[in-house]
């Protein structure tokens, strides 16, 4: 009887989820069409600030054996190619000619590889030539598989995100968090040192797999630029004890470094980044206020009930056994209640993770308040601090755009009675203004990123 009720509830939840997924898909398609239409409109009304992007000299090393490929629609291809601006110039050049210059090694190879492969079909590939969307695809996809419990698939997706952008290696932090907690559980709950060692080795291998693409690309740059040269001919970074090309390029060519961007003339760029940084800071501070003990203990002081909501990062066997032991002395009615609860939990776990999230909200547990959000908040805090103190701060918007807690928090505050409607209006206005100004300034090579 109870099980049939749970099944009916899950069917209703699945129906709601299908409608939500349809709405999200439609919204994504419509928003993309609107942005593309705005780009075409602004490009037709205004002249680009910098027209040098259209200058495309021949590759330094030509391949005479490979004939030049022409697109099926050269007029359309030429029109779209003229819209390549900012970092897109580097990505397209790498796809065409490979890594010719030292500074081009700042751009990881996944997007140029995709462009090169797609160009071998009849498709026109000169659109959205930025790696953020590709990184977001694999990063969010990795998070999806992580919360689904498919750790091996999540590792693969996170590794691919590291092929698109260097910050993909930070996704290894999720497995570091998981490994530490599972090892702690194995030592102090199970009293099993062998199990703890197995957890540590598995976690280390997963992190190494996520780092491999980035490390391999750095090795590729080292062998191309440094190997076979005399000491006098070597670039300065080649002589370092740890020859890391990426950090040298960021510092030497773009002036990236701790507090290097803290200059009065960069104040407009700080103002440009202030909305996304404010949203990130508010989400972090709000979560800390709601869960101070959990945050400052990094989750190690979580109760058994709180650990149950973080089953992905804790070992579930010991929790189940401890719960059964605690109920062994209770009345038969308590045991039946626990049995029904376990049946319901089993049905929930057999559904997809998005459905589980909806079910949790139906049980009165707002997703942003969940203890399971902790590793994502820590990840966001590290990235926000890096963007503010280390990077060109104006890139913070696209740098943080693939961080799920930003969207969870924005959704959370809009549902707060009273002030929620006002904050929802502010967020909507900002997003609309960002789309309108971004499509105007960015597509015409004006300062905006």
UniProtKB/TrEMBL annotation:
The chain crosses the membrane at residues 21-42, 72-92, 104-129, 135-160, 199-223, 270-288, 368-389, 425-446. GO terms for molecular function: alpha-1,6-mannosyltransferase activity; GPI mannosyltransferase activity. InterPro entries: PIG-V/Gpi18. It is a multi-pass membrane protein. Pathway: Glycolipid biosynthesis; glycosylphosphatidylinositol-anchor biosynthesis. Pfam families: Mannosyl_trans2 (PF04188). One of its GO terms (cellular component) is endoplasmic reticulum membrane. GO terms for biological process: GPI anchor biosynthetic process. Mannosyltransferase involved in glycosylphosphatidylinositol-anchor biosynthesis. Belongs to the PIGV family. This is GPI mannosyltransferase 2. It comes from Tripterygium wilfordii.
């Amino acid at each position: 009887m109870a099980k049939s009720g749970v099944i009916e509830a899950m069917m209703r939840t699945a129906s709601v989820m299908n409608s939500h997924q349809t709405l999200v898909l439609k919204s994504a398609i419509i928003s993309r069409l609107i942005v593309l239409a705005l780009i075409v409109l602004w490009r037709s009304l205004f002249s680009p600030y910098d027209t040098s992007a259209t200058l495309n000299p021949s590759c330094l090393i030509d391949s005479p054996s490979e004939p030049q490929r022409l697109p099926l629609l050269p007029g359309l291809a030429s029109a779209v190619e003229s819209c390549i601006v900012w970092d897109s110039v580097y990505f397209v050049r790498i796809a065409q000619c490979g890594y010719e210059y030292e500074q081009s090694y700042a751009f990881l190879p996944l997007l140029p590889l995709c462009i090169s492969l797609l160009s071998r079909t009849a498709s026109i590939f000169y659109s959205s030539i930025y790696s953020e969307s590709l990184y977001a695809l694999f990063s969010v996809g990795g998070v999806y598989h992580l919360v689904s419990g498919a750790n091996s698939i999540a590792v693969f997706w996170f590794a691919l995100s590291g092929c698109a952008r260097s910050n993909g290696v930070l996704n290894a932090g999720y497995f570091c968090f998981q490994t530490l907690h599972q090892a702690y559980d194995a030592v102090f709950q199970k009293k099993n040192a062998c199990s703890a060692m197995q957890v540590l080795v598995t976690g280390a291998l997963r992190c190494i797999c996520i780092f491999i693409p980035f490390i391999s690309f750095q090795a590729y740059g080292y062998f191309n630029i440094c190997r076979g040269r005399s000491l006098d001919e070597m670039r300065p970074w080649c002589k370092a004890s740890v020859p890391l090309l990426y950090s040298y390029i960021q510092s030497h060519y773009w002036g990236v470094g701790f507090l290097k961007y803290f200059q009065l003339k960069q104040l407009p760029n700080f103002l440009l980044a202030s909305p996304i940084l404010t949203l990130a800071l508010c989400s972090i501070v709000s979560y800390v206020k709601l869960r101070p003990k959990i945050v400052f203990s990094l989750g190690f002081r979580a109760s058994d009930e709180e650990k149950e909501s973080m089953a992905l990062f804790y070992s579930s066997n010991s929790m189940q056994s401890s719960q059964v032991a605690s109920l062994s002395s209770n009345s038969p009615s308590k045991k039946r209640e626990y049995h029904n609860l376990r049946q319901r939990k089993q049905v929930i776990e057999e559904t997809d993770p998005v459905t589980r999230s909806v079910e949790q909200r139906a049980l009165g547990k707002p997703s942003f308040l969940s203890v399971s959000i902790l590793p994502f908040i820590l990840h966001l805090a590290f990235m926000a601090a890096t963007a503010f103190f280390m990077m060109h701060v104006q890139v913070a918007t696209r740098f943080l755009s693939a961080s799920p807690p930003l969207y969870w928090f924005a959704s959370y505050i809009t549902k707060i009675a009273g002030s929620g409607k006002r904050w929802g209006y502010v967020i909507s206005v900002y997003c609309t203004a960002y789309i309108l100004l971004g499509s105007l300034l960015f597509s015409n090579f004006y300062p905006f990123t």
